[in-house]
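Lab notebook, bench 4. Continuing the backlog of folding jobs that were queued last week. Each job is logged with the same field layout so the records can be merged later without manual cleanup. Today's entry covers GAF domain-containing protein, a 602-residue chain. Filled in by technician R.K.

JOB TYPE: sequence-to-structure
TARGET: GAF domain-containing protein
LENGTH: 602
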Amino acid sequence: MKRLSMLRAWQAAVSLACLVVLFLWQAEFRHRMAATERGTQGSLGLAFEHSAETAVGRASHQLRVQAVDTGSTAAGAVASGALLRFDRPFDPWRRYAPGEAVDVALMRAGAAPVPLTLRAAAVPVPRADAADSLARLLLALPAVVFCLVLAFKGGRQDAHRSLSLCFLAMSLNVFVSFNYLPAGLLLSFGKLANLATYPLTWYLCVRFTLRYQCYLATPSRLWITGAFPAYRVLAFACSAYALWFGCGFEAPGLGLLTLAVAGGGLVLSAASLAEGGRQSSGQLRQRHRWLLLSIMAGAVPGMAATLPGLDAAGPFGLRLAVFSCYAGLLLMYAGLAYGVLRHRVFNFQFAFGRAVVYSIVSTLLVCCIGLAEWLAAPLLNDPQSMVRRLGIASAAVALLTYLAFHLLHHKLEHAIEKLLFRQWHEKEQALREFIRRAAHITTPDRLLAAFAAALDDFTSCAGAAIYLPAPDGSLRQSACTLPGAPAGFTAEQSRHGANRGQGLPGILPGQLVMPMSHRGRLDGLVIVGARIDAESYRPDECEAIAFAAQQVGLDLDALRLDQLERDLAVLEREAAQHEVAWRLLAGRRAGVRSVVTTAGHG
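JOB STATUS: finished
OUTPUT FIELD FOLLOWS
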């Protein structure tokens, strides 16, 4: 009870924090929309060094000027290369209102700072600023949603709580660069929260990867868990130091400390997931790959965004580095949530195979369309052509292209699959050939033994066990090539555990459990052993095994019906014989009775 109340309290605290984030979000959104509708924003006409674009990782509030606009109010007092310090710590990372006064201090070596008051001139809102701000606002919403879903759906698990808090921290990336909020409490709170939670985001990510599953104490795992306490101290120290900087103080070495926390978090998270993937098998290995890929998709572009060489213009007016960073974060959000919340994740081999097939088929079809266009060009470009004068050239080309696409698409796809994935197709064809031959097997024992052997061939000797119902409602093993398979299941277990092995004792990770059912009646179970390469079964393999189990179950029903018909015929013959015997016996009794009656009369 106490544990449940603590969980409820934690969920309430997370919900309250999400409400605070959404309140800050709507305030930033309102001011951004006001600037967009106005079409102008304030600018001091100063361009600072590249590293001044975000407060995260900064060590000093003194910013070096790279360029000064000629029409700026600072043109006469500030020159290129000068050092400026804003009176309000977060003024460099916000967009001003037109005409707003901004107090700065011109720093001079060996002399007192010179106070200056600069006026923000009205300039059009750049497309890059509008796109950057909108991207950060949109990214915050899925982070909040995933935070709440994980908190309420998986809050009992420590790993899910860590990931939920990680999403909460990432939702504060709204304040990672510039903002439209005016100077005041909301801006300061948002910026301070972002500075404090950025190092903790990596700490929570590492904590999630370490506690995602129960792992064996291998040397690699012991090294990772041994390094985690030191990393925890480093992350919290960086968070406290960043708050010190956000309060307006200088923080020498904060940039290197932040880089060490981010790099160390990435290394520890990747090492933990990679080592966990080596220990696991089947679906769990797929999940580790998903999580590793998702973290790398979000972290690598974000770190690459610090490189000045990636400042080329990208889509929607964003710089290429910024666009890659936001796209990577979106992929990371979706990948982490999918890998944790989804009951089943798709197989990488299957996804790669389908991508290769579709890419080749699409390329060939585009080439066919180009060839058709090249062949039709003389007819379409010749003004004296009868076809063009009749106005049917374009329609004919479109119709022929459609018909060719319809005829070639399936054949090309099938041919490419056979060429690139011959082994997969040969095994599937062998299993389907067995299903066709299974209808001619006349005894259940031979059918089940042949089915187990066919599954062995299909799964490269992974093993299989087949269970059929007993008179008492339990399931008893009827054919088996799977070492260590249970001898049977009770009626209660078979009722509640027929859904992919849920509730069945003795089922190991990576093993498949396929029901043989007909019209809602469970006719048996098929257990297929884990793959010998410790990978999970591909969706097409699961579909083929499920289809085979269903068909064999129907064949068993047909054999039972045949046996019932034979038993019924035997019973009918016995009944006819008994009827003849009764008639003969009745005739004899009637003859004896008549003889006795005649003798009595005599």
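OBSERVATION: The CA atoms of residues 350 and 568 lie 50 Å apart.
SIGNED: R.K.
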